[in-house]
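Intended use. Records like the one below are meant for learning the mapping from a protein sequence to its folded structure. Do not use them to infer anything beyond what is encoded.
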Amino acid sequence: MKTIQRALALVMALVMSVSLAVTASAESETPPAPTEEQAVTPDPLAAYSDVDAALWYAPALRYVTKNGVMGATGDGTFTPNGAVTRGMVMTILARMEGVDTTADEGGRWYDKGVAWAKEQGVSDGTRPTASVTREEFATMLYRYEQTVKEGGFVGSWMFLLDNPDADQVSSWADEAMHWMTMHKVVNGVDAAGNLAPQSGATRAAVAQMLLNYSAVER
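Structure written out for the chain above:
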């Protein structure tokens, strides 16, 4: 009887060991589900047919697209070298504050952005279809920093811009350009460090300045 019991015990132990081995093998063959951090996120630039992901503006375009402040200009293009209008800037800044800028029926696409900018003191709302210069963009962004974020220069400040074309900065844009260059939001457009304040701001340049602005430490 004892011999039979020992034999049965050995058989049961063998069955259990085989079962455990099969289970372990099955578990080892099944890869773990990817974590949220490991999940593959589509590249926002894939939405644009005219964007080179290897060029300098790629990180900035990803930033503005992902955050919903800039997008396609039509037919799946971003038009990185295209001009930016004053109305576009007002709309972008409004979107940064979570404003729904979708036009009402019969309204113009920039109406809500312009209304918000005037209410916040970011702009006077004039010439919304005119192309914006780099110093105009810097000024509107600086006013946004002052009125919405309650930042900007506080108290007395004085330092000189050492950029070769600093004398081309308009007097009304002087404080804004100082703050923006000090915080590396606006940088030189060439190796010499020229600011090109009177030049038009391209969509790629605006995206880059917005990315730079997002990194400002307060």
